[in-house]
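hi! just following up on the protien thing from before. the input was this:
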Amino acid sequence: MMERNGTPRLKAFGLMVILLLVQMFAAPTADAAKYAGAFMDDGGGARALAMGGAFTPVATDPSAAYWNPAGLSLLTSRQVMLMHSERFGDLIDRDYVSYVQPVSWSLLGGSRAGIGVSLIRLGIDDIPFTDHLFDQLDTDGDGIVSRTETFGLFELQDQIRFVSDAEYALFLSYGERLGSWHVGGSFKMINQSVGQYSSWGIGVDLGFLRQGVWKNLDFGVKLQDITTTPLSWNTDDGTVESIAPAVIPGMAYRMPLPQWDMSILIASSFETRFENRGEADQYSSGSMSTNVHVGGEVGFSDRVFLRGGFDSDWGTQAITAGVGFRLPGLVIDYAYAGDTLGIDEVTHRISLTAGF
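and the predicted 3d structure came back as:
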């Protein structure tokens, strides 16, 4: 048996990764490319995760570079965010760091603006890699390793190599206020590496935000990868994956309760794609599919915050929750997310935001 993969949950995860890598490097298909760049999902910041990812109309902190760069135009001070997340137990480490600040100039003649630089990193160690076993797995010689043929890995366990996966996304972001609207964009550079293989890509996100579109109702929308983001791999066949555009509108309603020194925030967003994902997403019709994110936050004296939500499903595994503390010059946030992989492991995330 594989000694470095000795627990049941790691075996299940390892076989899942093997199948994905075989599809990616040995016989790339349109389906494999549907999830290109998935390491960027869930963005940055524990507050956003605790609210189920319903953050498009809410983001006005350093995580806005990912969730909605238009929110950078609402900055009032320089801020730094540091985040660490252990996804599905200790299987995946994910980090986010961001620096943002308001600026005295504007590119479009607006009334205020802000800029930001952010980095997402995801790392996985000891991934079982099988690219060199392709010919032995392709028993029918058709150039494709089917799901049935992957069961042959059990007989080749001693030949499996273990590699590390490191994925990075650098965001250069800008937001500006134009009248009642806030607009923004992020230019992102992506690098992924698995063993000896690596890829590079560039992409662009656009964001729009309108606060008080009706009373205390805010509206935001993110146009993600608007140009379609290519990822060019250095494989023998020159594999090129593409991150397809996505449209993510959202609404947020704020309810101040000054008589109790409290506030309530309810938010939702609708992550919509056109990639024929079918049942892999929450709702689908034809080529279109949508994942719904909903979340809420209750604030006490603008210092302590309790949060909860549902991330792309309504089952218990999709429940998110968290807490936040606002101190002078420092915000501390914690988030929990359920076991969406069904491996009895949950996700924990903590972020620190300092203003100066």
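The radius of gyration is 21 Å.
The chain has a mean pLDDT of 86.
cheers
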